[in-house]
Specification:
Shape: rod-shaped
Strand content: under 5%
Number of helices: 2
Oligomer: single chain
Length: 68
């Protein structure tokens, strides 16, 4: 799995080759920030699906009715 250091290092290497030292700093920092944003989105999406499934299960269950 990727960690922020690996993502930033690879992006900085690309930025350095393309734009020099300023490119390495900007692209590396942007990649690390993007990593954290994407990780947060994925976690919240997975958490939301789990809570939605629990809520749907609770709503779909209807009490049994007996006819007298």
């Amino acid at each position: 799995m990727f960690d922020p250091f690996t993502v930033g290092k690879k992006a900085s290497k690309f930025g350095y080759r393309k734009f020099g030292i300023p490119g390495a700093v900007v692209i590396g920092a942007g990649a690390v920030a993007g990593y954290f944003v994407a990780r947060k989105k994925v976690k919240s999406a997975l958490k939301g699906k789990a809570s939605d499934a629990d809520a749907e299960g609770a709503v779909d269950e209807e009490p049994e009715q007996t006819s007298d």
